[in-house]
Design a protein that fits this description.
Layout: H1 14-23, H2 28-36, H3 43-57, H4 60-69, H5 71-74, H6 87-95, H7 135-312, H8 317-363, H9 367-378
Helix pairs in contact: 1-4, 2-3, 4-6, 7-8, 7-9, 8-9
Amino acid sequence: MVRKSFLSYNKTIWGPLELVEKLYPEAEEIGASVRDLPGLKTPLGRARAWLRLALMQKKMADYLRCLIIQRDLLSEFYEYHALMMEEEGAVIVGLLVGLNVIDANLCVKGEDLDSQVGVIDFSMYLKNEEDIGNKERNVQIAAILDQKNYVEELNRQLNSTVSSLHSRVDSLEKSNTKLIEELAIAKNNIIKLQEENHQLRSENKLILMKTQQHLEVTKVDVETELQTYKHSRQGLDEMYNEARRQLRDESQLRQDVENELAVQVSMKHEIELAMKLLEKDIHEKQDTLIGLRQQLEEVKAINIEMYQKLQGSEDGLKEKNEIIARLEEKTNKITAAMRQLEQSDNDLLTQTRTIAMSLVKYASSDTQDQYKLVKDISF
C-alpha cells in the first residue's frame, strides 16, 4: 500500500535510479541501455531492467552507496521515515556487496518486465514422501526441465537477436534513405559549386588582367621614385659628411675650452691662496705695530716721570740728562721703527689694491692676459 511504502505516493523507483547517472558517471551506460530496450513502457519495467544490468556488472552496491549518501536528493522521492532515509538503508547497501561474488547472467531483452511477477511454482523442486524412492525419475525430470529451460533461454536469446536485427535493419533503411537524400542535396550543391567556380574563374581572369596593368604602372612609378631616392640620398650623404666635419671641429673646440677652463680654475685657486697669505702677513704686522705703540706709550710715561724727577732733583741732573738722552735715543729708534712699519703697511695695502685690480682685469680678459697677470702677481 502507498501508506506503508518507502517511496513517495507521487514518485516511482525509476526516479532515484536516474539520479545515479549524475552522481556516478559509469552508470550512464546502463541508463542508456535501459532507455534503448524495446518493449519497456513503465518506469517499473525500466527499474527492473536497470537492477538486472547493475547486478551483472557487479556494481549494484557501489551505485546504491553513491545514491544513499545524497540524503538531500533522496528527500524528493522518499518520506522522512522511509527505510532509505534511515541508518538501516546504509546497512542494507553494505550487505549488497556480497552479490559481487555472483556471476549473474540474466536475460533482459524479450522479458515482460512491465507486468507484475506471477507466483513461482516451487512444487517440482520440493521433495514429497511418495517420491523419496524414485530418485531416477527425479533425475530424469530434472534433466528434462534443464533442457526445457535451456531451449526456452536459447529461444529468448534468438528472439531478442532477431528483434535487434529487425531494429537495425529499420535503422539502416532509415539511414539509407537519409543518405540518398543527402546525396541528392550534395549533387545539387556540387552543380552550384561548379557554376560558382566557373564564375569565380572568369572573375579571377579579369582581376589578374587588371592586376598586371596595375603592376606595370606601379613598376614605372617605383623606378621613378628609385631615381629620385638615389639623387636625394647623394645630397643627404654630402650633408651628413659636412655635419660630421662640423661636429668634429666643435668637439675639438669644446675640448680646448675645457682645458682652458681647468687652467683658469687652478690659477684661481693659486690667487686665493696668495690672498690668504697676504692677509695673514698684514694681520701679523698690525699686531706688531700695536705692540710697538704700547711700548711707545710706556716710554712716554717713563719720560714724563723722569722729567718730573729731574725737576725735583738738581743733584742728579747729569745722570738724568744721560738717562733722558738714552731714552730720547731709544724713542727715536722706536719712532723710526714705527715709521718703517707704517711704510711697510702702506706697501702691503698698495699690493692688496693692485691684486684686487688685477683680479678684476683677470675676470674680463682672455686666457693669455690672465696668464700674464698671474705671473705679475706672483712676482
